[in-house]
Amino acid sequence: xxxxxxxxxxxxxxxxxxxxxxxxxxxxxxxxxxxxxxxxxxxxxxxxxxxxxxxxxxxxx
Length: 61
Description:
Elements: E1 12-17, E2 23-28, E3 32-39, E4 42-49, H1 50-55
Antiparallel strand pairs: 1-2, 3-4
């Protein structure tokens, strides 16, 4: 699973809890996209989460 190159956000793990309170493993995947970004003036492909894209932390190429 990819991680955000800016904030490091990745997959989160926990339990699904049913109505009868039985627990099963669950994984929540973060919304990470492959994006061309300008890094020191050169375009580079990075994995960036959508919250970093919307907040303007990344300059798109």
